[in-house]
Amino acid sequence: MAIAKGRLLELSLGLFARAGIEFSDDVLTSRKLIFDANDGQHRIVLVKPADVPTYVEYGAADAGIAGLDVLMESRADVMQPVGLKFGYCKIAVAAQKGVSSLGGSELPTVRVATKYPNITMDYFNARGIPVEIIPLNGSIELAPLLGLADRIVDLVESGQTLKENGLEIVEVIAESSARLIVNRAAYQIKRDRVLEFMGALNS
Q1: Which of 35, 79, 106, 116 has its CA 20 to 30 A from that of 61?
Q2: 7-64 tens-digit pLDDT
Q3: pLDDT confidence bin for 203, thresholds 50/70/90
Q4: Which residues, other chains included, contact 75 with Cβ-Cβ below 8 Å and sequence gap of 6+?
């Protein structure tokens, strides 16, 4: 299973533990990237969040856990059989306080800073608003403050970071949470094991 480093890792490990899948190594602190479970039946690999769908789609992992935001952006051809009910957040358009619209007559083309170019382009295009994507990977809240972009599209949990930087949500694109994803071939070849695993997680 491909598991994302970062905010979903500890929650994923907690879910596995409740399903009887535990690891002797301290996954959270070790520098290793591959871990075998104590039951000898499961193995996890730690990868960047954006890479989880790729590992699963191409069969390097039979399954994985990824946020809906990552799945929407990657457009990977994977099965999404189980919503895992953790990692809740929003994918949202935000701007400096007082801005209430996606675009505006003063902006013939809206510059949007984001690490989600596909989601952003689809969302603005569907509303007929010309958009220029400014790709960023971190501290996206800075972009409107320094005049780099008019809007941002980012993941929002509590909204506190936006608030502290003088930004607010203009529109919510989608609600996101963690999903179990499964390689299509693995589901056919290892159906019984996959269904057993899904059952353990659901319970």
Answers
A1: 116
A2: 899 999 999 999 999 998 889 999 999 999 999 999 999 999 999 999 999 999 999 9
A3: confident
A4: 118
> Which residue bears the tokens 């949470």?
177
- The CATH architecture that domain 89-175 belongs to is 3-Layer(aba) Sandwich (3.40)
Q: Please give the CATH topology (third level) of the domain spanning 2-87+177-202.
A: D-Maltodextrin-Binding Protein; domain 2 (3.40.190)
The two tokens of residue 5 are 């480093």
d(CA 1, CA 119): 26
Task: Concatenate the DSSP letters of all residues of 58-118 into one string.
Answer: TTSSSEEEEEHHHHHHH----EEEEE-S-S-EEEEEEEETT--SSS-TT-SSEEEEES-HH
Global pTM value: 0.88
Tokens for 162, please give them: 């936006």
Task: Using the Cα atoms of residue 36, residue 195, residue 76 and residue 125 in order, give the sign of their dihedral.
Answer: negative
Size of the chain in residues: 203
Minimal CA–CA distance to 172: which of 193, 190, 192, 157?
Answer: 157
